[in-house]
Write a structure and sequence with these properties.
By secondary structure, the protein is α/β, with parallel strands linked by helices. About 40% of the residues lie in helices and about 15% in strands. It starts with 7 loop residues before the first helix and ends with a helix. Bound molecules: pyridoxal-5'-phosphate. The site of pyridoxal-5'-phosphate has 13 residues, from α5.
Length: about 375
Amino acid sequence: MSKLPTFHLEDYLSAREFSAPFMLGGSDSETHSLGEILDLADPESKEIWDKLSLHYTEPYGMPVLLEEIASLYGDAITGSNILSFAGAEEGIYCLCHALLDPSDHAIAVTPCYQSLESVPSSLCEVTKVGLDETESWELNIDRVIKEIQPRTKLLLINYPHNPTGAILTKAQQGQLIEIARTNDLWIFSDEVYRYLEFEPSDRLPTMASIYEKGISLGVMSKSFGLPGLRVGWIAAQNQHLLAEMSNVKHYLSICNSAPSEVLSLIALRGQDKILARNLDIIQSNIALLDSFFLDYFDFFEWTRPKGGCIGFSKIKGQWSSDVFAEKLLSAKGVLVVPDSVFDFNGNYFRVGFGRKNMPQALRLVRDFIEEEMKFKW
Ligand SMILES: Cc1ncc(COP(=O)(O)O)c(C=O)c1O
């Protein structure tokens, strides 16, 4: 077992995001205030909130919350198939530590949210299957098949995808499950951007509900825009795996924050309003980005995301994406995320379009291009 490497994305963001006036590289939807969430409370959850005492909570999560989470899945998943965590991050850590031994092998799709590759790599050998913009960021399933070895135990995927916004088709998802079944693989499916598909018909079934060795990761942070709650979960049909993950969790958070569990319950019961508001912001922001990239096609390449609230654009010309990001931040106070933090190095940067103030941030990028880039290209 090796030490975990520097988490480049979180490192980059933590040094900048709390002082940058405009976050244009963020990976979450617009958030809500505590008061707005409490206003959504139905009588039962309001009473739970008012009477809440601040003792330890159930290690798997408050039962009423687990039932609410389970209702996001198909019939194969009930409250007893859910284990909650401190964010999605803890779920990734617990899953990998519960499942992987040094003699195992895993396959991760890259670029990706770093822990989907770094955590399994600290435990066993991991083969990366790279995505390519010339293939519209689509997963090349033949490449996945080619990398399977007799000791391969786990395939890690994430759709809608961070950072490209790509989505598998249902046929591709079915193909992956068939391949996994044939080779006795677990599929860990990071579904933190589920519900933010631009076309509802692109929404995939949850992996845990359709594959007996499928593991679905969900969270309040991204589609619901409530990362400060730090509540995530894993859904899986396999009880033994859930128990193994719960054991790892005993060494970490032990249980969730009690107020956060109740607030998550309220938010999930009010999900229609929250998701409709977030999708509205995203749909109007993506239209602005489309015209921005059309106006400045000399400077950038852009493959339109299909879901989520982030995309990956390539900068053309002499500046690297690191230089572009640093100059944009110092000149206009707008933060984007260069692909070096994704260990990608193709001159891409991540743009986030979940926030309400994205139009102002984009106007500043336009000013930056007109003032700084046009002359120096
Ligand atoms: C794809 C993906 N999975 C998991 C996480 C971790 O989420 P959380 O901050 O809720 O722990 C992130 C955060 O950016 C992410 O983008």
